[in-house]
Write a structure and sequence with these properties.
CATH class: Mainly Alpha
CATH superfamily: lambda repressor-like DNA-binding domains
Helix content: 40-55%
Length: about 100
């Protein structure tokens, strides 16, 4: 399900939209700079399409954003959401369950 997106993807998209509004840039300009079609960028920015890691980093660069900060801010927002569900348990090297559902 390539185009299914989750809460984190949607929050990252919202952060990109906010930055674009602040910078007063057009989607077509950003799409050209990133190397995707305007249609693809529109879907990404609405949280309706997953983006590759390359597109993520390119968007951050073009928008003057730090990729780590964007991800951290998005994670901080969605990690407190009741909608966030992990499909499997996450276990550290010592066998301790970290987060998620079995």
């Amino acid at each position: 399900m390539q185009n299914e997106t989750g809460a984190l993807t949607k929050e990252v998209a919202a952060l990109f939209r906010a930055r674009m509004a602040q910078a007063q840039v057009k989607q077509s300009e950003i799409a050209d700079a990133v190397g995707v079609s305007q249609s693809q960028l529109s879907k990404i920015l609405r949280g309706q399409r997953q983006m590759t890691i390359d597109v993520y980093f390119n968007l951050c660069a073009v928008l003057g954003l730090d990729p780590s900060r964007v991800m951290n801010q998005a994670w901080q927002t969605v990690s407190t959401s009741a909608d966030l569900v992990f499909p499997v348990s996450w276990v550290d090297s010592k066998g301790c369950r970290l987060v998620g559902q079995a």
